[in-house]
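Q: What would this chain look like folded?
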Amino acid sequence: MPRHADWTDHLYRSLTNEEDARVCKAISDDACREVPGNFLRQLGAQTFTGLGDRLANPKTTLAWLLQAMGAPGLFLALIVPLREAGSLLPQLFIAGYLRQLAVRKWVWVVGSALQAVAVAGYALVAWTLEGTIAGLAIVGLVALFSLARGLCSIASKDVLGKTIPKTRRGQLSGWKSSLSGVMAMGAGAMLLLTGGADGSLHLYTLWLLVAAALWLIASIIYSTIAEFPGETSGGGNAWTHARQRLRLLVDDRPFRDFVTVRALAIGSGLSAPFVVSLAHGELGGGGWWLGVFIIVDGFASMVSAPIWGRLADRSSRTVLRTAMGVTATLLAITIGLTFIELSAVVAQVVYPALFFALGIAHSGVRLGRKTYLVDMAEGDQRTDYVAVSNSVIGVLLLVAGTITGALSLLSLPLALAVFAICALTGMLLGHRLPEVSA
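A: My prediction, written as structure tokens:
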């Protein structure tokens, strides 16, 4: 066996705590032989994109950037729902095309390259534009980024299901989140040390160019995955395919229950901008505090994602329900804070700590639902599940973002209460989900 194979086998076994690197469930014999290398390639590619996501995050970096460029507040309200929903809505139609491809990694490669173009565009806007024009340009680039992200989302789950054993998928996602979190902490520390009180557009431009380079590197790594040809049945007209796949919500109760629970969990991510808004009002909006929150977010993923991932391989249902319960509790605490006048010193501790805890809960929700969705289906059915669930969630994100955004103008605690109640309801309904991890 070549020396590099020995090295990848050893590292794979170390990361997964696996005595036998060839223990495979729900993948072909050919794919089984390539598991160690494919595990590390996907880990590397997704770690780079995970770090890029943190460096160009609309909840933190883009929000700070729009304020620095003097863009109207309307654009701040648009970027988060647009980024999330835009990547999910088209997937029902993309799936019909994807099912015709025997090898699907190239869809991810193209999507990652397009995301690099969009993020480089953010940097160009930061360097050359300001005000309303800058806001419009950023929103347009967010839309491009979001569509490209959708390509990666649907392709990655299919490639993951074809190349990684059933009991190792959660750990791959967990290690990805952890490693990208570690690197994000380092990047955040650099911003903290160099950002100053007010930050600099030149600094943010460099920050975004680095993020764009990360997506390009990831696309190169992902292209080397050893993916064997798979099923290609069920392709055809996108509209016909979309209508047929939507029947899953009527005919497939376990899948319908999963989509319901996932929909109730969206507050774990959408509530973050409200917490950042509260912190912004209490702590100020300079580059120093942006660095702090990026570090906190990265640290939350670093310490929690490997644990969530290992637990998800045992029971992704339990992980999802637990993380939703934690989310509901933390949002209730946040609501309570809005009625308490905190001293400056206490606020400087409480808000980063709260953001850290919410980051842990959100990591659990993401890993739980992703692992559950990949494990509950095989072959082309997985592609349909991913496409339908993501498209439905995309619609709900736009609706939820609009409603809670309007509610926040009246009462921020009321908007947070909606998310808390939804998370609690989802935790309770989660008992209806069948176990799929074993």
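Residues 287-337 form the longest helix (51 residues).
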